[in-house]
Amino acid sequence: MSAATDQPLNDFTTSVSDLPWPLLQALAELADAPLTQIADRLRDATLPYLGSSALVIFTEDCTGRPQKKAGEEDIISRVSIAELDALRAALSDETPWFGEAEIGGKPRPVLAVTYAPSHALLVLTDPQAAPGQKDPAQTDRLDVVTYLWRIAARRIQEKVADAPPSYLLESRAASAERVRVTAELTDLHSTTLETLLAALRSSSLDDAAARSTVTDLTAKALVGLRILSDRTTDLVEEPVANAFERLREDLRPLTRFSGIEVEFIEPPLNGRALPGEVAHAARAIVRGLALAMMEQPEVSRVRTQWDCDGENLLINVRDDGRGALTADAPSISRLDRRVQALNGRLRIDVMPGWGADVFVTLPLDLPVRPAGDVAGWNLAARELEVLQHLVAGHRNRTIALSLGISENTVKFHVRNLFRKLDVGSRTEAIALAHSHGLR
């Protein structure tokens, strides 16, 4: 081989050695991350560029587990949906924001970044430094962190879109349990606060100014509690009209650039609210059907219609092509698996020369799981005993006395349960256990 031939190889070797291999490795691991590890992988990837005490992802794509967290336990165990929602509402665009916000029950320095396609939020607590005009290196590091976040947010969208049946069922169970617990807390605190209001308004109290001040504060607390309850419900239930409007927004780019007309037949305004997973899956299914139909020749119009019979979401998507779409097409098979994951049905009627008509039925209620379907969790015998006590509503002290172990040992088993079940609270662990038949 001549020197002239060797030169490009030498240049190539030099350029490869100069590549940022740690960053590329982090990108590869992040792009391959399962949902259960996405927060840990993202934190590992960002730490070399922007240190932080904790990382929190807030995404409504995962309605049963809207938070994904990594870092200091004292922070990630206390952060709430209300705190994250308030922080996200204060951000106007995807520009990284540095400031102070209440996270984990107290004000902390944070970096917050949103991801517009899914409205997801990334929060890094106690970031080591904020970029300044005279520190371009720090600005570059922030750009890397933002880039990594966008990859993670997109990965979450993709994983939820292709979620297996077990994930969808468990997510719905956790969502339903969160609504139930929030409703109980709302009733409890509402009764307490309303009683307090009645006492403070009593004419037997002499200090009118104090009574007026406390009355106002208590009234505001009531309003805040109700808002929190409504917000939690919104995360796991979506009015059918709102869900359909979000579908229209999703498909608007197709109508704008494809030259194909998309007709929307709206559902009744008073239809039953959709569980979050059903609403999310329905939009993904219709998007997939619309794209598959538009790839056919001679399609000029696609019509989509939603309806609700009280027990099911009924979807119909039809094109005006030549009827070339088939049930065994890869795109349709993939969508059918998504429908089956929610215990639904997909039927396609092909009319040669007239187009394809696809009917999808998605049940709105959670299917019952067979009892004892927990082998996949790989729980030790003691961990399963602790889980059964949690399901029974027992606290750590009661579990310790019953099993003859210390409370610290119970806490150790509970932490292991959270990790193996991929949940962030006792409530979610109980909900997941219920969905697998444990009572």
UniProtKB/TrEMBL annotation:
Keywords associated with the record: DNA-binding, Transcription, Transcription regulation
Protein name listed in UniProt: LuxR C-terminal-related transcriptional regulator
Organism annotation: Arthrobacter methylotrophus
The UniProt record lists the keyword DNA-binding: yes
InterPro entries per the UniProt record, alphabetical: HATPase_C_sf, Sig_transdc_resp-reg_C-effctor, Tscrpt_reg_LuxR_C, WH-like_DNA-bd_sf
Domain called HTH luxR-type: residue spans: 373-437
Keyword Nuclease: no
